[in-house]
Design goal:
- By secondary structure, the protein is mainly α.
- It contains one helix and no strands.
- The longest helix has about 140 residues.
- The relative contact order is 0.03.
Length: about 180
């Protein structure tokens, strides 16, 4: 065999081995690149998941704070509603008492008005009796009834001892009695 053939025979397996090694190295490099890319993608996905998880946690905390605030406002509103209802009840009771008092005072006012009207009628009757008695007295003094019986004296109605009739205006005192 010739040295060239021997040399070629010695080089060919080395070249095949080198080509195979190069091919394997390229494949491994591609694999490593793909693996590195996969790892980077996984790390990026993990970071996104961590950020999403943090956003969810923050949103959950915000929701819990809002819920707590809302519940506190509901409690305050219920308390205020109860307070207003109690105030309405107190005011209604006061209104009922005032209505009852007004009704009683209107009854008393009506009774007093009736007493004033009755006393005014009694005063009118008494004035007529006074006029009649003055006329009778003048007639007797002048002798207009000689031998005849004088007309009967009108009866003076009895007055209520507890509530005497009011004095005529010209006899009333302007200053209060002490």
């Amino acid at each position: 065999m010739s040295p060239t053939v021997t040399l070629v025979a010695a080089i060919v397996p080395g070249l095949v081995a080198a080509a195979f090694a190069f091919f394997q190295a390229t494949k491994t490099a591609k694999l490593n690149t793909t693996t590195n890319e996969n790892i980077a993608a996984q790390n990026a996905a993990i970071e996104r998941a961590k950020l999403d998880l943090e956003r969810v946690r923050i949103d959950g905390d915000a929701y819990n704070r809002a819920k707590t605030t809302y519940e506190q406002l509901l409690v305050e509103m219920r308390n205020e509603l109860d307070r207003v209802r109690r105030q309405i009840d107190r005011m209604q009771e006061q209104s009922d008492r005032l209505s009852d008092q007004l009704a009683r005072e209107q009854d008393v006012s009506h009774t007093l008005r009736q007493q004033v009207v009755n006393q005014a009628q009694q005063i009118t009757q008494l004035r007529h009796q006074v006029v009649t008695l003055e006329q009778l007295l003048n007639a007797l003094n002048n002798g207009d009834y000689p031998g005849r019986m004088p007309p009967p004296v009108p009866q003076i109605p009895e007055t209520d001892p507890i509530h005497p009739p009011p004095r005529p205006p010209h006899l009333r005192r302007s200053d209060p009695v002490t």
